[in-house]
Write a sequence for this structure.
């Protein structure tokens, strides 16, 4: 076979009888010497340029100043260590180096740190150093430990999956659950939901469910204002009233309209006032009878009585069909003035502070007591008759002291004429 390139040369000298079909055997033409040398030089050049590939070159040190062109680099036992594919791909069965700089391309199926740990790796701008992972400008952005990843910075992602369920809430919605101080004014309607903590689990419950719970619970509302206007307050009992609101003793009342009298207290006060008025009327009659012994005293008593009657007339306005705006003398209404409303068949008292008439409705038993006082009207008429100027009264001197006492008593009656006493006396006077 003609030996066209160096790979076809034989390691046995005697077997090399030609080079590129130029005969170099014994007895060759002398001219073939030059041609054979030239062909050998061309063959060596093909090897230099890579036109002819060496099958299995071996050397202690091989230095390539340009390109080392070979598809494989093998150990002497034939194990392929490095393979070079067409296009420049390199495959290494096992690679170990104290320092490698890879600038471009791709690295596949590579395990780092199998035999010894990689203390630090910087891939582009990602820095991995021990237990921290970060950016070259923020190297400790993440810290890794057994079962725990701690992120020191901000996490931004398109979708967050927790346990196989995508989180669809926005950051704003999550912040609301966390206690965002921004409070809206949206009015809840039926079907709206409220987020609650159900024994450690966050759930959404409708406002209708909350309304049902509140209506069936016995929770106590404290420091709350209830507007009773156009609303109904049911099952209100005495013990539900705030201390001091219900007045059970009308002997001493507040100067302001800030309490509500109990029915019993009202009854007791009217009965007491009626009794006092009856006793006062009796005492006045007795005093008047005694004053008949003195004309001068009687005259003074009459004047005092007329003055008291005028004062009383300004307080008790009598019977009217509607609320009067002035008293019987045409003057401004006095605080505590009363009259009987024939339209509604009730007694009314005037409140100057509120510029209004307030209704007084006695019980049936109280009305009976008032009627008893009214029966004494004839005695009062007799007294008025005895005090007329046509009567002659003797023995004045011995009764002056009694007359003065009577005048003092009448003055006391005039001074102490309260709304309740005036009511009783008015009824008695008809």
């Amino acid at each position: 076979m003609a030996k066209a390139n160096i790979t076809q040369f034989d390691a046995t000298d005697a077997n090399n009888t030609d080079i590129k079909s130029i005969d170099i055997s014994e007895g060759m033409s002398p001219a073939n010497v030059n041609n054979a040398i030239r062909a050998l030089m061309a063959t060596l050049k093909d090897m230099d340029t890579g036109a002819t590939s060496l099958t299995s070159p071996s050397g202690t040190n091989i230095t390539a100043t340009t390109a080392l062109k070979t598809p494989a680099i093998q150990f002497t036992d034939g194990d392929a260590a490095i393979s070079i594919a067409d296009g420049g791909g390199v495959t290494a069965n096992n690679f170990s180096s104290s320092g490698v700089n890879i600038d471009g391309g791709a690295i596949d199926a590579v395990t780092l740190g199998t035999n010894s740990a990689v203390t630090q790796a910087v891939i582009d701008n990602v820095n991995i150093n021990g237990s921290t992972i970060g950016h070259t400008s923020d190297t400790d952005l993440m810290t890794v430990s057994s079962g725990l990843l701690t992120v020191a910075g901000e996490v931004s992602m398109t979708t967050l999956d927790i346990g196989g369920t995508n989180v669809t809430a926005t950051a704003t919605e999550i912040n609301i659950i966390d206690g965002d101080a921004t409070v809206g004014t949206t009015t809840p309607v039926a079907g709206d939901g409220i987020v609650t903590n159900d024994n450690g689990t966050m759930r959404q419950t409708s406002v209708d469910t909350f309304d049902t719970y509140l209506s069936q619970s016995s929770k106590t509302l404290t420091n709350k204002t209830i507007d009773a206007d156009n609303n109904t307050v049911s099952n209100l009992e005495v013990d539900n009233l705030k201390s001091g609101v219900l007045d059970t003793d009308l002997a001493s009342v507040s100067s302001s309209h800030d309490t509500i009298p109990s029915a019993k207290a009202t009854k007791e006060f009217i009965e007491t006032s009626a009794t006092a008025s009856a006793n006062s009327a009796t005492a006045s009659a007795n005093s008047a009878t005694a004053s008949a012994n003195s004309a001068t005293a009687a005259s003074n008593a009459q004047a005092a009585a007329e003055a008291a009657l005028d004062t009383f007339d300004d307080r008790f306005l009598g019977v009217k069909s509607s609320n009067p705006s002035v008293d019987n003398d045409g003057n401004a209404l006095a605080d505590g003035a009363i009259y009987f409303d024939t339209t509604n068949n009730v007694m009314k008292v005037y409140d100057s502070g509120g510029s209004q008439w307030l209704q007084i409705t006695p019980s049936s038993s109280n009305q009976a007591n008032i009627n008893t006082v009214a029966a004494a009207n004839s005695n009062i008429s007799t007294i008025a008759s005895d005090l007329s100027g046509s009567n002659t009264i003797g023995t004045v001197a011995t009764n002056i002291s009694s007359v003065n006492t009577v005048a003092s008593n009448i003055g006391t009656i005039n001074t102490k004429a309260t709304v309740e006493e005036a009511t009783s006396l008015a009824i008695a006077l008809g």
